[in-house]
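TEACHING EXERCISE
Course module: macromolecular assemblies
Task: Read the component lines below, then compare them to the predicted structure of the full complex.
Student: A.B.
Group: 4
Components provided:
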Amino acid sequence: MSNSSSFQKILLDQLPIPNRLITSYATLGLNEVEVMVIIHLIRSFQENKYFPTPQEVADRMTITEKECANILRKLIQKGYLAMKQQENEQQQLSEIYSLNPLLEKLYTETPVKEEEQTADGTIF
Amino acid sequence: MSNSSSFQKILLDQLPIPNRLITSYATLGLNEVEVMVIIHLIRSFQENKYFPTPQEVADRMTITEKECANILRKLIQKGYLAMKQQENEQQQLSEIYSLNPLLEKLYTETPVKEEEQTADGTIF
Amino acid sequence: MSNSSSFQKILLDQLPIPNRLITSYATLGLNEVEVMVIIHLIRSFQENKYFPTPQEVADRMTITEKECANILRKLIQKGYLAMKQQENEQQQLSEIYSLNPLLEKLYTETPVKEEEQTADGTIF
Amino acid sequence: MSNSSSFQKILLDQLPIPNRLITSYATLGLNEVEVMVIIHLIRSFQENKYFPTPQEVADRMTITEKECANILRKLIQKGYLAMKQQENEQQQLSEIYSLNPLLEKLYTETPVKEEEQTADGTIF
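Instructor-supplied answer key:
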């Protein structure tokens, strides 16, 4: 019953979060609760649930379903979260969320953080 | 300048967060802002900074230095965050934070979430 | 159909591998094919398959089932891989593999790599 | 000196590897040693070394520098690894490797693995 039996559990229980989301959300106009909604979405996606209800997201949070719904709406309005239609094998359409707009902003636009630059004032 | 040149950036920019932290923090009595402080600590540790100041943590957040200091204090009081003394090569002592108490709670104690159980209502 | 629609796919498709396994396997007496068997096991575990057959592991590799079985046996003999009995909810016993012995060697024993040490000559 | 002091070490020591690389390399015509060279490159990139020498890569492997150089050449010829020129702040050019061609193949082309498809025999 040694603790080391937990090593594998830790290894297998990682959720990958974009570093730049953590370093840049304040610059993107997001607060901590809104970022946590995004992290809960990433977690849901990893379990192949691409359209969790506000209730399902709020269940693990300290906010109400209504507050969660408002944040999801705000994320869509700000252009960080998208709703898409997806067709399954039975040609049925269903809605899914996508965080690609956020990832695109984080990784292809002019960097929001100066982090990786060596600001020396000589860049023209 | 294709987007695919960003693929590698995304791959290399992941911060590993314990899944159980995300699913269990509410049960552990933590709120979203407090979890985000923990995530900022993990990020700092990954950059080999094991004792960031409240100001350094708050710099990337939407809270003040004072609010951040209060949260760090609360995390220590709740037994999730530890402060330890570490000796470097020059036999100099310095303080470092450690999240091992939190990880121990998450991965070795009776699970705080029912997640891996088969909830059948018969548990007493 | 922009490439950026792949960003989320990359984010969600990461397999966490212990860095020290990659830096230390040669020192541990393992070669590249043996490490890849370990990586395939980690991948299998992440899909909640804790006892893949040699055939299942070899299916994604360029080695035969027999070579794979030999490597699994060698990993057990070397004390890196364990076989354990696990009881499920129906009190049925089944075999599972565990990589905890390897992780214990990598993370609790005297480091196999000098990487994080500051060799000061006083260790005898 | 409990083992649980290793929990944080494990959490902070993860190397993210694309799952699809592990499931698809055989289909891509790569063997285990060649994939391990790629994994060593990813590790090197994470340490901000974007142009390791064959010797540096081979140092942690069980192959010779020459074998490693041959594999790097093969990866470039197969179109999985690219060499690019990068300009630093002092307008100096240097070579860097990029795994974007491989990631592009893994994540934007027709999937090499049937994994996410529902093979129903009707795809002609």
